[in-house]
Design goal:
The complex is a heterodimer of chains A (111) and B (140). Chain A is built from four helices and seven strands, in the order E-E-E-H-E-E-H-E-H-E-H. Chain A is an alpha/beta fold and 111 residues long. In chain A, the strands form two sheets. Chain A has a five-stranded mixed sheet with strand order 1-2-4-6-7, covered by helices on one side. In chain A, strands 3-5 form a two-stranded parallel ribbon. In chain A, strand 6, helix 3 and strand 7 form a beta-alpha-beta unit. The longest helix of chain B is centred in the N-terminal third of the chain and has 22 residues. Chain B has a single domain, classed as Heat Shock Protein 90 (2-Layer Sandwich), CATH 3.30.565. Chain B has a five-stranded antiparallel sheet with strand order 1-2-3-5-4, covered by helices on one side. The chains are: A alpha/beta (111), B alpha+beta (140). At the A-B interface, helix 2 and helix 3 of A face helix 1, helix 2 and helix 4 of B. Chain B: This is Anti-sigma F factor. Chain B: Its EC number is 2.7.11.1. Chain B: Keywords: Kinase, Serine/threonine-protein kinase, Transferase. Chain B: It comes from Sphingomonas mucosissima.
Chain lengths: 111, 140
């Protein structure tokens, strides 16, 4: 996982795992929690390297948005078809803002 | 080389990826389209995770067996394990979890991705049968 920013109040995080599944989720969750020091309320997650995600991986993203509090928001970009399918099946595409690129993701979070 | 009739792995979360890889190899050999493969892999992984986490409850000595077959326009996956059976109330639950739930989506995902879910015990072995109807190929 690499992170940059915060750009304004948006933290950009590149998730660098191929499979965000139940085996990988606990380590990613710990890294995300360590990365977020409480200053960022908006996060843009770049998932372009994630070829597959299961419900445990999705649970990490849900825990992340809950950690941000009521003013928090997360946008995701680089979403590959299997990951998009999971967002849609679980209706979490209505919670996480889906963007087609970094700039669109930032704009969605600022909007 | 032909895929083995039954692919087995240890019932550990880090092994579930091997089941998924086996499914993808079978899917390619059986000419399953990419869209259907996404649903099949999601369902398989959720089912295998449940077996590891709930059926074997962290026991490290269990195994999971997977067979993949195509009968006409139906792709059938069968998962076999020797863990604690899934309670019927869990398998038949239809209420989707709330949007802020951090877990508990597995069964709902399986039911969304799969057309027919069967569950039985055969000689002390749990058999989860997941069948998905595949789209008919376009007429030539």
């Amino acid at each position: 996982m690499t992170a940059s920013g915060p750009d304004d109040d948006i933290a950009l995080i590149d998730v660098d795992v191929d499979r965000l599944d139940a085996a990988a989720a606990p380590a990613l969750k710990a890294r995300l929690q360590a990365r977020l020091d409480g200053s960022a309320r908006k996060i843009l997650l770049n998932l372009e390297r994630v070829s597959f995600m299961d419900s445990t991986g999705l649970g990490v993203l849900v825990s992340l948005i809950k950690m941000l509090g009521k003013d928090g928001a997360i946008a995701v970009t680089g979403v590959q078809p299997p990951v998009r399918r999971l967002f849609e099946l679980t209706r979490l595409d209505t919670v996480f803002r889906m963007a087609s690129g970094i700039e669109e993701g930032k704009a969605a979070l600022r909007g | 080389m032909a895929e083995p009739a039954v692919f087995s792995c240890a019932a550990r979360l880090e092994e579930v990826e091997r089941l998924a890889a086996h499914l993808r190899r079978c899917g390619a050999a059986l000419h399953v389209d990419n869209v259907a493969m996404i649903d099949l892999e999601l369902a398989l992984v959720e089912a295998a995770n449940n077996i590891v986490l709930h059926g074997y409850a962290g026991r490290g000595d269990g195994t999971i067996g997977l067979t993949v077959d195509r009968l006409g326009d139906v792709l059938i996956m069968e998962l076999r394990d020797g863990g604690v059976p899934i309670p019927s109330s869990v398998l038949s639950a239809h209420l989707p979890p709330s949007l802020d739930a951090e877990s508990g989506r597995g069964i709902a995902i399986i039911r969304s991705c799969i057309d027919e879910v069967g569950y039985s015990q055969e000689g002390g072995v749990n058999v989860l049968r997941l069948a998905k109807h595949l789209p008919k190929p376009p007429a030539a």
